[in-house]
Amino acid sequence: MLDHAAILSPLKEKGKVYLQEGIGKIFCLRKGTLAEKEIVQEGIYLLFDLFQIRTLCVAFSEVSLDIVDFASKPTIYQSPVNPLLPKGAVVNGLVRFSLIREPNWNKLLFQIAHPVLFTEEKDVKADVQTNLLFPLFHSGTKELFLGPEGEVKIRKG
Predict the structure, then answer these.
(1) H helical segments located in the chain
(2) Residue 111 to residues 7, 14, 40, 55, Cα–Cα distance (Å)
(3) Domains contained in the chain, number
(4) How many CA atoms lie within 13 A of 45 on its CB side?
(5) What is the DSSP letter of 83?
(6) Residue 87's CATH number
(7) pLDDT 10s digits, 128-156
(8) Which range marks the domain in which residue 63 is found?
């Protein structure tokens, strides 16, 4: 089980929390405002709901939204950034995001209520440990470029 309170508390206090998941990988979740200050370039915004895409990306076509909505495996998307997103994990005008569907992680993201920035970490001590696997560490994770007009390019498949 995932101890939401143990994760939400340091995230609220410090703006970030380090987690060690089931296979031992450590990652950080940062609030968007902290990501803007630290200018993290390799991050992936985690979303709990399809409608959160609007906060990160330019307006999507129905085709692009359907691709995200009907993806059956963990997928990382790269798309043109919404000009209203101040900074934080934008590389060459593109932002990376993933809609997390796994119920335990999705519920945590729902409680956070805003997109958070995920970064894989090394040589840091985890604030929280869980035996649950984090979906983006799955070997079958795909990476796609999604354009606002329905363009799709497979980055890693």
Answers:
(1) 4-14, 32-38, 53-56, 62-69, 103-112
(2) 10, 17, 23, 17
(3) 1
(4) 33
(5) T
(6) 3.90.870.10
(7) 999 999 999 887 889 999 988 888 899 88
(8) 4-156
Please count the other Cβ atoms lying within 10 Å of the Cβ belonging to residue 3: 12
What is the per-residue pLDDT across 8-41, written as a single tens digit (0 to 9) for each? Answer: 999 999 999 999 999 899 999 998 765 556 656 6
Q: Please, what is the angle between helix 4-14 and helix 103-112, to 10°?
A: 30
CA distances for 59 relative to 83, 98, 118, angstroms:
11, 16, 23
The structure's pTM equals 0.91
Position 109, amino acid:
L
In angstroms, the CA 30 to CA 28 distance is 6
89 token code pair: 């994990």
CA–CA distance, 29 with 7 (Å, rounded to integer): 9
Residues 6+ apart with CB under 8 A from 61: 148, 149, 150
Determine the Cα–Cα distance for residues 127 and 143; give it in Å rounded to an integer.
Answer: 28
Q: What are phi and psi of 120, to 5 degrees?
A: -75, 140
